[in-house]
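(Deposited chain)
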Amino acid sequence: MSLRQSFTARPWRVAAAVCVLATLVACGSSGGKKPEPTPLAPNHALIGVRQAWTAQLGASEAPLLPAVLGNELWLAGSTGTVLALDATTGQARWRADLATPLSAGVGSDGTTAAVVTKANELVAIEAGRVTWRARLGAGVSTPPLVAGRRVFVLGADRSLTAFDAANGLRLWTQSRPGDALSLSQAGVLMAVGDTLVAGQQGRLAGFNPQNGSLRWEGVIASPRGTNEIERLVELVAGVSRQGNQLCVRAFQAAVGCVDANRGTTLWTRSANGAAGLAGDDQLLFGTESTGRVLAWQRASGEPAWSSDRFLHRGLTAPVVVGRSVAFGDATGYVHLLSRQDGSLLNRLNTDGSGLVAAPVLAGDTLVAVTRKGMVFGWRPE
């Protein structure tokens, strides 16, 4: 398979005591009591959704993002379990127990799955069997990208490294200096045509996957402020792609869209959020750190609608599901809102332990993983 065929659409480490924002839970004000979550309105279930299956992954605290390819789904638990599922039936294709904590979620091209351990080791798995391991020079929070028979890794130090998926041979490394702080949250690493796209500080950058040379850059947000925390503008996972248009969020700074053909920034808008975006050909969807849900016009970035019904509920990044946009929350609910106006269409319950990461759509199945390690699959009717 050619590289182009494979490339389809498809820390904060602070010495001082600071407030750490993660994907699922926003920090309260410094020294103050955490705000109470907004009570939920009655659920009138305006669209039908049925639970299709459940599966068990294992308890997980870290937000390790899954990989999706058609109806296939790969999940990783923070204690070292990697699970490949058929998203239609919920049946396990294989399970691997690496017996070591993981720092990043899973990437897969359908043959090779790859994860990163907290000991900075890249691990490749095929059919449930470890095929090779490679040491990394930096910590990793972003799931590896597996494409074109290569495995690409984005380090917390913003380095990019390519490995041969067959044997783990290191092919190239591209380093980039940056600010002293980085975000312990999954960043942007994806493929668009024959270009490797990565988030580096507040920029989307396109690279030649053969040798790591830079092709283009599009700026979403620029570091500013008087200290390292205020200057943190990393791009976070959760990219909305329509053709060659990529729309992303810069952590607590902005949202914006880039033309990946030329690397041209189409528009940016200030936005105070920590979780990624989803969208369709007309709108983008995301949340602020307070829990406000927002929609923007995709073409211009102008506001389309907003909803305050989920304030302080620890919302995840969204996923588009049919005519709805779905968000998980810190108490384990998945909320389905109308893409048109943000009205509530349905609410799905899990096990009450909270979602460990944003829900995903695999084929026609909406999938969510809880902190207790339960995997829920629903199918809209």
Summary: The chain has one domain: 3-28+46-380. Helices lie at 3-6. The chain has a mean pLDDT of 89.
